[in-house]
Write a structure and sequence with these properties.
Helix content is 66%, strand content 5%. Helix 3 links the parallel strand 1 and strand 2. It has 2 domains: 55 residues, no CATH class; 89 residues, no CATH class. The relative contact order is 0.10. Helix 1 packs parallel to helix 3, helix 4 packs antiparallel against helix 5 and helix 5 packs antiparallel against helix 6. It is elongated and about 55 Å long.
């Protein structure tokens, strides 16, 4: 579901509370406890994320990797980081065998350390941005989506 509106917390909250009310009275949704395992995904729009948290306090939030990638690319372009360095950081964060696709904590940590070391060496100004804005979202995605998927498919859960 794609939601676009005025970007207002109040607007999003009204929508999600209406949806919550419908789901709360739906006998089938109540029986299967659909709201307990709800996972939502979005870009980084603060009003939307906050409204989902208020309406569905037990839901888990994922972040759109494409939006994260676009945000990193835009940030690096605006801060004047050379294209070759931008491409390598994007590859390390979002490419094949990247931080975003880490199958476990150890791999994630190794990939995170590699990205931060590269950033420190070639564009030190981006370290804080990556550490505070991007890497926590990718870690959350990894724990909410990738690791449970791998555990289920490997018979761990």
């Amino acid at each position: 579901m794609f939601l676009h509106g005025d970007g207002s917390f109040v607007t999003y909250l009204a929508f999600f509370m209406s949806l919550r009310g419908i789901l709360d009275v739906d006998v089938h949704a109540t029986e299967v406890k659909a709201l307990d395992g709800m996972i939502t995904g979005s870009d980084e729009e603060a009003a939307l994320v906050k409204a989902v948290r208020v309406a569905f306090p037990n839901s888990r939030q994922l972040y759109c990797v494409l939006h994260c990638q676009d945000n990193v690319r835009d940030y690096m372009t605006k801060t004047g980081i050379p294209q070759k360095v931008r491409e390598e950081i994007i590859r390390m964060l979002f490419g094949t065998n990247s931080l975003a696709l880490s199958p476990d904590e150890a791999t994630f940590e190794d990939a995170r350390a590699g990205v931060m070391q590269y950033a420190r060496q070639y564009c030190a100004g981006i370290e804080e941005y990556l550490a505070t804005r991007i890497i926590p979202k990718l870690l959350k995605n990894c724990f909410e989506l990738v690791l449970p998927f791998l555990c289920v498919n490997n018979g761990i859960i």
